[in-house]
Amino acid sequence: MASLMDSACFPSTDLLFGSAFNYSSIGMALVGLNGRWLKVNPALCAIVGYSESDLLKIDFQTLTHPEDLRTDLVHVEQFLQGAISSYETEKRYIHMDGSTIWVLLSVSLVRNTNGEPDFFISQIQNISARKQTEVERDAFFNLSRDMLATANSAGYLMQVNPAWTIALGWSAKELTERPVLSFLHPDDIAQTIEAGQCAMRGESIDGFCNRYQAKDGVYRWIEWSMTANYDGVMYCSARDVSRRKAAEEFLIAEQERIRVTLQSIGDGVITTDVKGVITSINPMGETITGWASQEALGMPVDTVMHLIDERRRGGIANPLLESLQQQTAVRRDVAILIRRDGTDAAISGSASPICHSDGSLLGGVLVFQDVTEKNKAINQIKYQATHDQLTRLLNRAEFERIATYFFNDAHSNENAHCLLLLDLDEFKAVNDKGGHMAGDAILREIAALIASKLRAADKIARIGGDEFGVLLEKCSLPAAEKIAAQLIDAVGAHRMDWDANTFQVGLCIGIAPLSKQSNTLKEVMAQADAACYRAKAAGKNRFQTAAVTG
């Protein structure tokens, strides 16, 4: 059999380029120096809604949103002056139906044999869905009362919401153009660096406090919850807890001052005697626990503050009782409070003993906050970072992360898993005939259909436009082939009615084992991709299994 590397096995370069151009899922075009479209592929026509013949009659300026045209023309001038050879930007096109679409545009300049500018090569991806997601995310981000931010590994805040300006007085520009450490109290820098490093290692940081300098020069205590994703971006939720810190310090010194101060702070506060019997509860404490003051006074603190573990749902010790027993401050980062009416609230807080000037124990104080909404915000950010917005499946990055875990498990524990790459057949016809809304609808239906046919431990992700990835945990090749056949039958039998049309797509699958014999994950992915390609070439609606090597 001839080697796969034998050049005789490959089509000519012109044929390969033509095929790549015409069948690419990304819009592609050749554009003259005067802005006229010279050649466009079907994907670009689908994006902007024009036929090929109509596009060739106009220039890119006609399609460009007026507010983005100047930027385009500046880039063209830079090309012609030799200042740049390529660029990438997000811009807006005017669709044939008059709507605005967002695209990611990559442009390169091609020069002739004399080195003179000849024409441009453009690649266009429709990112309208992503832009809409960003608009919704930003609305949530900006309306939150908590101080939400993203930070990079270099120690800079990349984006902050308006709550930061409200709390500290600095503008968003001022907060993001200086390193975080430059705002901190010198005594807090070392602990902050350590907390950031822990977050970057994948540890979830919740309840870390440091002092942040406000624009008026005063340092404010900020409580942080931080988590980092796979690419080093840190998601932060913070709040100004200066009032709570001040309250905790004053509570130890003067019990009378407690009763005055606690009425105005925004945290729940409960004080007890040395036996843990409640002596006071402030209005916020009443709101969070659901216990009125007259009901709570004289009750054991662990009755009013009935806490359970967030994950195991089992009972946990009350931090105030621990503080009284140990006569030291005790922090509870996150726990679930069973409120008076039986509902749950996620809380965090700290307990401290209250001591007389001679050191004798007088009682204890518990300061706590309802972090239910903050936890939801953090979970939402995590979800958006790991899931595909359209299908609600895992996204490619999260799929590759889990695939790496499967690969390592296969090598370390000798478990056999299988990786499937799935490609829809006739999907382009859905977009062409029914439009992108029909295409999106059938993608969602097919995604749900495939997920319903998998086992509970299996993972499915959308890894491309009409491409899906599946990881079958602890699955032999024969079992994987059986599952693949079931998926092909299920998808092939599925029909979707859209307007006056009925659409049907097919499915091709490439299967590759993840075993101790696998050399690299990249190789396994390539094997599955090649097998999927063979399946399509063999007549579609079928699967192919990669040859087992090693």
Textual characterization of the structure:
39% of the residues lie in helices and 28% in strands. By secondary structure, it is an alpha+beta fold. A six-stranded antiparallel β-sheet has the order 12-11-16-15-14-13, with helices on both faces. A five-stranded antiparallel β-sheet has the order 2-1-5-4-3, sandwiched between helices. Helix 10 packs antiparallel against helix 11 (255-261). The radius of gyration is 30 Å and the shape is globular.
Quantity of strands, as a count: 23
In helices, the fraction of residues equals: 25-40%
Mean pLDDT metric: 87
Shape: globular
Bin the strand percentage.
Answer: 25-35%
Class inferred from helices and paired strands: alpha+beta
CA(first)-CA(last) distance:
20 Å
- Tell me the strand order in the biggest sheet: 12-11-16-15-14-13
Low-confidence stretches: 1-8
Global Rg: 30 Å
- Total number of helical segments? 20
Describe the largest sheet. Answer: 6 strands, antiparallel
Concise account of the structure shown:
The chain is of the alpha+beta class and 550 residues long. It has a six-stranded antiparallel β-sheet with strand order 12-11-16-15-14-13, with helices on both faces.
Jot down its keywords.
single chain, 550 residues, alpha+beta, 6-stranded antiparallel β-sheet, 5-stranded antiparallel β-sheet, 20 helices, 23 strands, 28% strand
